[in-house]
């Protein structure tokens, strides 16, 4: 009896050792994302015929420099949840009327099914108008904007992601943040690299209406210059930057893009990033097709 138990114990240990060695040789741990496939949000438009859909045969995706087989590439015309994140700090080079006007345009450009959440921020992020598609209600709420305090942009972005958009994470609703700001952050607890990684992980697209830099391009010790903050947030998440003095054009372009030009690309990773590594992403398309996408998928923590 004891010999039989010992034999079973030894066999079990050998099996466990074999499994461990195999996992070690592979250099990665099991990753559920890989089993199910990776899904990317892509903006794709044709230069000559923007109304004509783009097909899977016209795009390619690379992960860490290795081309991946595209599993599917389908239009995503569903509704969007959009947070308007408005810098109302005291020294911003824009008055309240200009901020109101920029936000107001979105209330009249969203499509059926879309909804807006308007948040103003200085040291704190505060809801100006809760989720709604009622343009008149949104317009009336904008009268509550007040300029005060210092801009804690990175903290406000985290609040928008975690408190504003997290409940829509596993739905078919697209999620975007439109930042109306010059990109300046003063002493947020959240670091720039942290919030960019969080936005990429949660597939939140950042657009921006960029206000002129109040610092005049001054160097920042532990973060990019304000202009580069805006640019990197948009580039890193697949969004765009617009000048704040063209709010009508910006609102129309953003709302149209979210409804008419978004696609979902899926692939099952092969030979790309190991467990704990970032996925550097690149999507290319045939001549005459423009694409935008997030540039990286941070590792699962």
Q: What is the structure about, briefly put?
A:
With 301 residues, the protein is an alpha/beta fold. It folds into 2 domains: 86 residues, no CATH class; 180 residues, von Willebrand factor, type A domain (Rossmann fold, 3-Layer(aba) Sandwich). The chain is 33% helix and 27% strand.
Lateral arrangement of strands in the main beta sheet: 7-6-5-8-9-10
Q: What is the helix tally?
A: 8
Tally the beta strands: 14
CATH class (first level) name of the largest domain: Alpha Beta
Q: What structural category characterises the helix and strand content?
A: alpha/beta
Name the CATH superfamily classification of the largest domain.
von Willebrand factor, type A domain
Q: H/E series, N to C?
A: HHEEEEEHEEHHEHEHEHEEEE
Q: What would you say the CATH architecture of the largest domain is?
A: 3-Layer(aba) Sandwich
Give the percentage of residues in beta strands. 25-35%
Average the pLDDT over all residues and give the rounded result.
Answer: 88
Distance between the termini: 46 Å
Give the proportion of residues in helices.
25-40%
Cα shape: globular
Number of domains: 2
Major β-sheet annotation:
6 strands, mixed
- CATH topology-level name of the largest domain: Rossmann fold
Radius of gyration: 23 Å
Pick out the low-confidence regions. 1-35
């Amino acid at each position: 009896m004891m010999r039989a138990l010992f034999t079973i114990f030894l066999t079990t240990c050998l099996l466990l050792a074999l499994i461990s060695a195999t996992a070690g040789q592979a250099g990665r741990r099991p990753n559920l994302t890989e089993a199910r496939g990776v899904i990317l949000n892509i903006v794709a438009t044709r230069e000559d015929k923007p109304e004509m859909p783009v097909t899977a045969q016209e795009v390619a995706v690379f992960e860490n420099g290795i081309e991946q087989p595209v599993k599917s590439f389908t239009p995503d015309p569903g509704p969007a949840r959009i947070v308007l994140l408005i810098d109302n700090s005291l020294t911003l080079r824009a008055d309240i009327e200009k901020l109101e006007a920029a936000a107001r345009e979105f209330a009249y450009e969203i499509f059926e099914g879309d909804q807006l959440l308007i948040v103003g921020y200085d040291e704190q992020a505060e809801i100006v108008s809760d989720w709604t598609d009622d343009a008149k209600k949104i317009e009336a709420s904008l009268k509550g904007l007040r300029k005060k305090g210092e801009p804690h942009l990175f903290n406000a972005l985290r609040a928008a992601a975690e408190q504003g958009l997290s409940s829509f994470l596993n739905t078919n609703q697209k999620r975007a943040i439109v930042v109306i700001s010059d990109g300046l952050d003063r002493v947020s607890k959240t670091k720039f690299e942290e919030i960019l990684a969080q936005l990429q992980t949660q597939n939140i697209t950042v657009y921006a209406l960029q206000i002129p830099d109040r610092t005049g391009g001054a160097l920042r010790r532990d973060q990019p210059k304000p202009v580069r903050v805006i640019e990197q947030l948009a580039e890193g998440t697949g969004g765009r930057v617009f000048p704040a003095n063209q709010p009508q054009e910006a609102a129309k372009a953003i709302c149209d893009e979210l409804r008419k030009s978004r696609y979902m690309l899926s692939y099952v990773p092969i030979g790309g990033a190991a467990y704990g590594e970032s996925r550097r992403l690149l999507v290319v398309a045939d001549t005459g097709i423009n694409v935008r996408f997030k540039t990286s998928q941070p590792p699962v923590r």
